[in-house]
Amino acid sequence: MRCRLISDNTDTLMGMRLAGVEGVIVHEREEVLSALSEAMHMEGVAVVLITEKLAALCPAEVQDLKMHTPQPLLVVIPDRHGTSDMTAAISRYLAETVGIHI
Asked: How many CB atoms lie within 10 A of CB 18?
């Protein structure tokens, strides 16, 4: 089982490489969509990680993949610049995927 990272900065990619996670750096919406498509179809990849900033460039596509693609798992992660309120993000994720409101 492998992970694949789609990031917008070198620091996040280098940190994940220390944990054995390979990935790509992209910046434009079209590059994000291309990298997502490639990662979601890679053999042996179980988890695709994408930074919040990149997920914000194509929110409808990310949400569609999260809701309708059983494998690999698509996870939006914060990068070194911080994140939105994690409690709210987790609550929203549970509400969207499981139907539990906290």
From this structure: 7
9: tokens are 């900065």
Q: pLDDT truncated to tens, each residue of the chain (102 aa)?
A: 799 999 999 988 998 899 899 999 999 999 999 999 999 999 999 999 999 999 999 999 999 999 998 899 999 988 766 655 656 666 676 677 666 555
> In what helix (H) or strand (E) does residue 39 lie, and over which residues does it extend?
helix 29-40
CA angle, residues 58, 61, 63, in degrees to nearest 5: 105
- The residue written with tokens 């309708």 in the block is 68
Say which residues have a Cβ less than 8 Å from residue 37's Cβ, sequence separation at least 6.
Answer: none
CATH for the stretch 2-97: 3.40.50.10580
